[in-house]
TrEMBL record:
Pfam families: Ldh_1_C (PF02866), Ldh_1_N (PF00056). Substrate binds at R83, R89, N121, R152. Catalyzes the reversible oxidation of malate to oxaloacetate. It comes from Paracoccus gahaiensis. It catalyses: (S)-malate + NAD(+) = oxaloacetate + NADH + H(+). Transmembrane segments: none annotated. This is Malate dehydrogenase.
Amino acid sequence: MARPKIALIGAGQIGGTLAHLVAMKELGDVVLFDISEGTPQGKALDIAQSGPSEGFDARMKGANDYADIAGADVCIVTAGVPRKPGMSRDDLLGINLKVMKSVGEGIAKHAPDAFVICITNPLDAMVWALREFSGLPHNKVCGMAGVLDSARFRHFLSLEFNVSMRDVTAFVLGGHGDTMVPLTRYSTVAGIPLPDLVKMGWTTQEKLDGIVQRTRDGGAEIVGLLKTGSAFYAPATSAIEMAEAYLKDQKRVLPCAAHVDGAYGLKGMYVGVPTVIGAGGVEKVIDIKLDRDEQAMFDKSIDAVKGLVEACKGIDSSLA
Ligand code: APR
């Protein structure tokens, strides 16, 4: 059987890291696409030349023409601009919306059967716009945020409890922004929910609240340190986890920005929810029960996402 074809739209910091990970994990052949001439070609060549030492079999190609993504099984979209210190993800909306239009049209024309994972920020609004511009089925277009936000939460919790990150599970709902909703009740160490760990004296409520806030600010903390761009290693790894779930039909339960229509009382909008990802793309949205406080935080997050979607419609009348 031929290797899967993975198109990476955007060959910047995340795009290059994605290509390297695809090669190392032998998930398929890669086409790195970018508007910048030479960048995708240079990165493709560099990564290909790590093959003899690493021992992987994967073809790497750089491209500036959408025709090269023809027939891709997976498209991961990072095209656009990242934020700088002091900027919120929402400040990127105007520029990145235009980028989503060209990317959506390129995918619709050349890779309409692909599973599309968007990473470009502001995530929830960009994945919605990308789906609108591409016209692909909703279950085949989703956004990467929840896996990353949960990974950040798990990392901070593992440091607090001094246990392996593998034994910490965490749950983050809502939009990928300041209003994201880390759910402590559904986050555990080896199955023990965080509120029980507070009762057991493993941590205090105050420390837990601090970790929740650090998770919400996780992206900004890295932007502040890097100064010239935003996080790329963990975002790339998170998207690869989703792509692998699709390519190998793993039926992984992963939080992602999915099209929610009915669940959570929502009518057709993209927002971070737990999903099942397998060969059918986003095969299921898991509708969990929220308590009153969680619902209030979720509602606030939904309003923030709706505001961004309205802003998109205001900028591009074809979306209205
Ligand atoms: N089509 C294709 N590629 C484009 C386009 C376009 N219309 N516009 C910009 N690009 C490319 C740039 O040339 C650049 O190589 O997108 C790439 C973006 O790479 P970086 O600037 O390194 O940004 P990165 O850190 O990879 O983040 C990309 O993901 O997490 C989000 O907020 C982040 O929106 C940002 C995106």
